Amino acid sequence: MRIAVSGSIATDHLMTFPGRFADQLVADQLHTVSLSFLVDSLDVRRGGVAPNICFGMGQLGANPVLVGAAGSDFAEYRAWLDRHGVDTQSVRISEVLHTARFICTTDADHNQIGSFYTGAMSEARNIELQSVAERVGTLDLVHIGADDPEAMMRHSEECRKRGIPFAADYSQQLARMGGEEIRALTEGAAYLFSNEYESALIESKTGWTAAEVLERVGTKVTTLGANGVRIERVGEPTIEVGCPQEESKVDPTGVGDAFRAGFLSGLAWGVSLERAAQVGCMVATLVIETVGTQEYELHRARFLERFTTAYGDEAAAEVKKHLG
After folding, report:
1. Structure confidence at residue 112 (pLDDT)
2. Which of 13, 213, 279, 322 maximizes the CB count within 10 A of its CB?
């Protein structure tokens, strides 16, 4: 099963200021603020929902196809993804814009001042999925993650037109979307991904009930934080999968992307939805134990050992066949 993953491609530039922002603000001069903070550290991390998902799939041997837009500064990031099993040949490189980036400074009280530059992400709307399918031979599923809103709309419309199954996954873009946009992106999706809050927000903005949402998609996948995931289909028993015990809780950033990486890899392998969800929860656990969204290492022997502890011998034996 060949899966393409579309979505934002970005880098995060994270800095720390040893003082307090509040100490630098003058109450009667807030209308004309001009400040510069001398920071102690700079941490540049690879990010964006699509590369985060593809990185995990690559680690699992699922050979994902990355679809998105980046700038000419993408070369080093591309090489990293190529080395980790990701097909990056369908990434559009902008001739005029830099790769999207998030720039954030955190003070001693954990207050943050940040900016997000969309950059080349705005050109994702110019990507045609048919050309991607022709290059790789076929596309069995397109995961449509948070991206340029027009790109998300175009990709879902093209999937419906060409009969390509797709997964709707709005995540960060859900807040800015109206009911009409959400309905258009949801209708006919093979999979709908969200967390519990996003699920309620989808219902609120579309005016659909939970049952009406489920009628419009093949499978609804709702992540439940530390409680794992719930999978629902019309006329089928609900599947609930818990999370493995984490060895430490270091950084939750990217945990949702990691779950999707494992789940989509399970789909690519052809295992059951329950088994795919278990793989997703295991990969998510690895990420929460690591600083950074693509800094974890997937050692197969250790992965299987922990997977066995969490889900049993039978489940581990089935997954082992695909991990090699």
Report:
1. 84
2. 279
